[in-house]
Amino acid sequence: MPAVIILAEPDPRWAEQYRAQEDGIRTALGPIAHTVEHVGSTSVPGLAAKPILDILLVVPDATDEPSYVPALERAGYAFFLREPLWHEHRLLKGTEPWVNLHVFPIGSAEIERMLLFRDRLRGHPAERRLYEDTKRRLSMQEWESVQDYADAKTEVVEAIIRRAREGLG
User: Fold this and answer.
1) What structural domains does the chain harbor?
2) Is residue 92 helix, strand or coil?
3) pTM exceeds cut of 0.85
């Protein structure tokens, strides 16, 4: 079934919803939750987004699933995906609100990339407009999967991350 991308207008409740999720994650995991950050489009004030919170969770060892998955499942998340060849990424999902919980091990290069991208969009209105315009244009198309939509944004995302790294603008 084709994927339809629906962007919601920016919602200030996303930040409040994130804080509640962060509290629940930290309570469930204690010191295993090395870093918990709101990432993705819902973390950028003023940016239209799919109404799904993306949360970055950094743990000492993402391959040690027994150290964190059962506690997160008890907290209401469902294990969804294991990607050992992509930074040992694990994905869990929550439903109230909709959450994609991205788990990476300490030291993963993807952590820096996610935070650079988020911070660049937060601090540079022109970058935020470029990204939103790209998302809106691409959301008008029909996609075989949501991943295809995400992949179509790659060129713009990589350019924004590159400018963030180089400190341009």
Assistant:
1) 13-166 (3.30.460.10)
2) strand
3) yes
